[in-house]
Amino acid sequence: MADHTEDVIESRSAPVIEPGHTFGSVTDKISSIVLTRPTSTGWFIGFGLSFLVTMMMLYALGYLMLKGIGIWGVNVPVGWGFAIVNFVWWIGIGHAGTLISAILLLLRQSWRNSINRFAEAMTLFAVSAAGIFPLIHTGRPWLDYWLFPYPNTMNYWPQFRSPLVWDVFAVSTYFTISLLFWFIGLVPDLATLRDRATNRVAQIIYGMLALGWRGSARHWHRYESAYLLLAGLATPLVLSVHTVVSFDFAIGIVPGWHTTIFPPYFVAGAIYSGFAMVLMLAIPIRKLYSLEDFITDRHLENSAKVMLATGWIVAYGYGIEAFMGWYSGNRLDAFLLWNRLQGPYAVLYWLLLICNIGIPQVLWIRKLRTSPMGLFFISLVILIGMWLERFVIVVMSLHRDFLTSSWGMYYPTRWDWMTYIGTIGMFLTAMFLFVRILPMISIFEMRTLLPEAEVKAE
Amino acid sequence: MKTTPIYGMMAEFDSASDLVAAARKTHEAGYKKIDAYSPFPVEELAEAIGFHKNGVPLVTLIGALIGGLSGYLMQYWMAVDSYPVNVGGRPYHSWPSFIVVTFEMTILFGGISAVFGMLALNGLPMPYHPVFNVPRFVMASKDRFFLIVFSTDPMYSPAGTRQFLESLSPRSISEVPS
Q1: Position A309 in a domain
Q2: How do residues A2-61 score in pLDDT, each as one tens digit?
Q3: B60·A229 Cβ contact <8 A
Q4: Is A166 in Cβ contact with B101 (below 8 Å)?
Q5: Angle CA(A372)–CA(A376)–CA(A382) in degrees, nearest 5?
Q6: Model confidence pLDDT, tens digit, residues A143-165
Q7: Model's pTM, two decimal places?
Q8: What is the domain count for chain A?
Q9: Do residue A214 and residue B132 have CB atoms under 8 angstroms apart?
Q10: How many CB pairs under 8 A join A and B?
Q11: Residue B113 touches partner A, C-beta closer than 8 Å
């Protein structure tokens, strides 16, 4: 116990930014990655591979347009399959970006300044990947604009009592606000790049994107207001998005879906997997671009603590689901529990428990929370675990519901896998482009962390 | 130099503290049309140049209210008036179902108003601005701090203002052509 209490004491933590940096050195270090550093062979290889995987996704989507969703494994009774599993997984991953950029900003957690930019980029790309799935799952994606209320010759409107329509609003609002938040945060840094670029084309492109930002005190004043307000708006938004996603299930009457625990349990799971993805990106990035000064062990440790906390909320969710299966006395809920533990997909449920509850407990060990290799591996395990959780929720509830005569099995086809893996490729392609052409750490927010940024009284 | 009109007189400083102190003195000396430039937000600076009111919160509030109201009314009109569908005998005006979309529209319009309201009030995008004519101003986005007195200020005079700015012991002083 004594050891544990000492862990909490701040002074033992690593600094947020290594000492010895100045405004100039911070600016030079981050902007040089984009402007002067030659593009490494590793980048080309990584980008090339990701791009190939993206092409595979486009091939799978092209074939889907040609043939229809019959090429997937979905069929009655499991009509949702991979498309919805992956949608929920990707949306969840996006949540950590908004949590870091908005909620931690409001809580004045200044350590967020070195990871918020790429976490926000991660959010955007993850939500883009997520958005693909429900759109193609409609079966006729070229009619997807029907999801929005627009005046039409058929003279009808969306059904606003349906959580699926709520989802359209929640996800599109989330994407728009995340994009605005990310872009507005980039504007002062784009001005820095405009002023430091030596190449005429780069000067013009960054100059146009910087919107003529000149750092006027009046502008900063309004900017800070807008940024804080946006964070205040994004905070309830991010909590609402996965809540609405969970309504897609909870409003239904299928056993295993119709529970009130879903919203908090989904939000915690989202942040859990999101931080795992943040670490899986931050650890290689800080190594490859030698950014250990800015993304210190403090960031790794704090992220690990967030994962540990949200992991336990998720574990509580599993516990309550199992408890209610027994305590409710509802035969269908009891059967669902039995089916999870011993049914045909039981191995996935047990794997899920190992990945999400078992293995992450090693994060109680302080040494592991600051070990990049260890954290990278645990994050991978958590991401797999959270994907399995969505598979368990979507597929295992649907495949054996009320009538034994309508039971069935769901097996993903190669097209399911190609689309899923393809979106990972698309996500990584976007990340590779992002770290190459935009400052991956917020330069102006890093400047505010330096001691010289403090204004001394006269 | 005689033929080009002058936009203002600019002084360069090394630190945020120096700039805030200089901006305060300039404002107290009676110069009202001034501005300061820093590579990161400095809280005290807006106050030092006498800028207190900021329209962004009001714009955001109005945007959010418009979003929320229009979101709710849109659903009400569509579900009750334009295209009523009887779902298991539920009331057409089933307001609890309308909360989610109302909430999302509030956030969407509030966020868009905050961002575009801020840009509009700041007069951005504006790719060209006279201050960019000062070669040293490229440092304003890195590690230097600038103070400008606009030539439209009633107290502005090329010699007098330069003399005043020199008394603030800046790193350099330059005239800004417009």
Answers
A1: yes
A2: 444 444 444 456 777 877 788 888 888 888 888 887 888 889 999 999 999 999 999 999
A3: yes
A4: yes
A5: 140
A6: 999 989 999 898 889 989 889 99
A7: 0.90
A8: 1
A9: yes
A10: 207
A11: no
